[in-house]
Amino acid sequence: MKKVLLTALIAVISLTACGQNSKKMKTLVAYFSATGTTEAVAKDLAEVAGATLYEIKPEAKYTAADLDWRDQQSRSSLEMKDKSSRPAFVKDLKDADSYDVIYIGFPIWWYTAPTIVNSFIEAYGFEGKTVLLFATSGSSGIDGADKQLHAQYPAINWKAGKLLNGASKETLKAWVGATAN
Q1: Helix (H, G, I), strand (E, B) or coil at 55
Q2: Distance between CA atoms of 118 and 166, rounded to whole angstroms?
Q3: How far apart are CA 81 and CA 72, in angstroms?
Q4: pLDDT in tens, 4-23
Q5: What per-residue confidence (pLDDT) applies to 83?
Q6: DSSP state, 61?
Q7: Which of 52, 116, 146, 148 has the highest count of CB atoms within 10 angstroms of its CB?
Q8: High-pLDDT (> 70) share of the chain, %
Q9: Radius of gyration over every alpha carbon of the chain, rounded to an integer in angstroms
Q10: pTM
Q11: Do the Cβ atoms of 57 and 83 come closer than 8 Å?
């Protein structure tokens, strides 16, 4: 009888421990989108990942003139030249600490992430959290942004980012599945 009770107790403890380890990860898809391209991908990614969607909204919206990369005095050009630039954004993300996995999306500007992404990361921290970058771009890859942000914020548990130009929901599902481990 003692053996049966001991075996049952061990089984209950084991199942309880397994249940605690299999808690559903809370996921956030945060994105900055100046023209709507990154926003479209972010919405699909949040849907397939079962994640909360959050827009990183600049306090002062970018105009077409602000985004003119050919104008050396445009807002985006000046921000990207100054690596210490931290554009203000609307800080309204609730319970940022409750997320286990954070996807951060943005358009590639000057081969890297717009500096508003640094503003977002520094405002909420994410130390010890799993963070994945995703980007959209007309001609550049995500490697520069990956390397730069990983180096700037070493306390974050980074996973490799991905360029998601025109990604289908199937592609997004495969990426989310591959990065879940």
Answers
A1: strand
A2: 25
A3: 9
A4: 433 433 443 444 444 444 46
A5: 84
A6: P
A7: 116
A8: 87
A9: 20
A10: 0.84
A11: no
